[in-house]
Amino acid sequence: MRRLDQLLANLGYCSRREARAWIAAGRVTVRGEAADDFGLKADPADVRIDGQPPDHPDGLLLLLHKPVGLVCSHDRREGPNVYGLLPPRWLQRNPQVTSVGRLDKDTSGLLLLTDQSELVHRLTAPKHKVPKTYRATVHADLPPGLAAVFASGTLRLPDESAPCAPAELSVLGPREAELTLTEGRYHQVRRMFASQGCEVLTLHRVRFGRLTIADLPPGQWRELPLDCFAPVAG
Ligand code: URA
User: Fold this and answer.
1) Cβ–Cβ under 8 Å, residues 170 and 178
2) Same domain, 73 and 40
3) CATH number at residue 66
4) CB 3.0–4.6 Å: which of 124, 176, 180, 193 could bond 168 by disulfide?
5) Residues with catalytic annotation?
6) CATH label of the domain that carries residue 13
């Protein structure tokens, strides 16, 4: 049960003050009756706003194909961001829709967006070791033995004391490979390749846990069920 004025404001329809005006104007109904008390608590399933059910009242979980050139930060000073791809109302929601971890501006591929902060914590916490797979092209031929270096669990990146956790490299071609990580340090893939003399030219995340980007076009998203990452029973 949620207060009507709070429901409208939190789902991004308008401010709480405006919500009170919407309610007074009869734009909000509960079980078919115009609600005149903005403090009324109602089950969102019984609520209609201008005749329509509330927009994703339980939360949002999206799988976005992030194009290159957009940042994951909400800070406008950092340039155009991925949130600009979403319907404007979703940008006004509280809690805010945010990315699960980040991809660099120059990285494309699978990015999860959600307003479920508990999910963000669970999927980004190092102890959960969610595997993420990146396809990289590099400027020169991959050195022999690279897979063993990345798998060793002893690779140290400059200025970091803890070695990288073992990562799996699958070579796709002389200058192309997929790397699966279970951690998410700053620019980790680019820095791991750089530590072995390879500059990453393109980077694309193809997998996050069990999810793949499949043939979703850049800039498009699909909705995922909120329980998508619930532990599988049995
Ligand atoms: N590693 C990187 O270097 N960049 C990303 O965007 C993601 C992982």
Assistant:
1) yes
2) no
3) 3.30.2350.10
4) 180
5) 104
6) 3.10.290.10
Q: Which of 212, 147, 141, 208 is nearest to 176 (CA)?
A: 141
Q: What is the pLDDT of residue 13?
A: 98
Which residues lie with the beta carbon below 6 Å from any ligand 1 atom? Answer: 103-104, 107, 134, 187-190, 203
Query: For residue 234, is it within any domain?
Result: no
pTM above 0.85, yes or no: yes
Atom of ligand 1 nearest to the CA of 106: 6
Helix, strand, coil shares, percent, the chain, to 5:
25, 25, 50
56, 116 Cβ separation under 8 angstroms:
no
Q: How far is the centre of ligand 1, averaged over its atoms, from the C-alpha of 203 (Å)?
A: 7
pLDDT in tens, 64-94: 999 999 999 999 999 999 999 999 999 999 9
Q: Domain residues for 111? A: 61-223
Name the token pair of 28: 């909000």
* pLDDT tens per residue across span 21-80: 999 999 999 999 999 898 999 999 999 999 999 999 999 999 999 999 999 999 999 999
* Ligand 1 centroid – CA 92 distance (Å): 28
Predicted local distance difference test score (pLDDT) of residue 126: 85
Q: Which of 71, 73, 135, 188 to probe ligand 1 with, by most ligand atoms within 8 A of CB?
A: 188
The best mutation among 70, 124, 190 to test binding of ligand 1, ranked by most ligand atoms within 8 Å of the C-beta, falls on 190
